[in-house]
């Protein structure tokens, strides 16, 4: 089983030619859907690959799977 990141953990992910980062705001271990900037985002989270709602410093939000993230 993957060790999930906790709320408040600093994480980053590949974004275009660089990286984006933020803090974990919520953790999900089952299917989750959120509308972010008008787009419906779905992650099929499990205990082995949880999903995270990440809040960025600029106020933006992202819904990411554990496999997409690295802990900073």
Write a structural description.
This is Hypervirulence associated protein TUDOR domain-containing protein. It comes from Methylopila capsulata. The chain has strands at about 10-15, 20-30, 30-35, 40-45, 50-55, 60-65, 70. The chain is built from no helices and seven strands. A five-stranded antiparallel sheet has the order 6-5-2-1-7, with no helix packed on it. Strands 3-4 form a two-stranded antiparallel sheet. Helices cover about 0% and strands about 55% of the residues. It is mostly beta strands and about 70 residues long. The protein has one domain. The model has no long low-confidence stretch (mean pLDDT about 95).
Structural class: mainly beta
| Helix segment tally | 0
Strand elements, count: 7
N- to C-terminal distance: 20 Å
Q: For the CA atoms, what is the radius of gyration?
A: 11 Å
How are helices and strands ordered from N to C? EEEEEEE
Name the quaternary structure: single chain
Strand order in the sheet with the most strands: 6-5-2-1-7
Number of domains: 1
Helix share of residues?
A: under 10%
Broad shape:
globular
Layout of strands and helices, then pairs:
Layout: E1 10-15, E2 18-28, E3 32-36, E4 39-43, E5 51-55, E6 61-65, E7 70-71
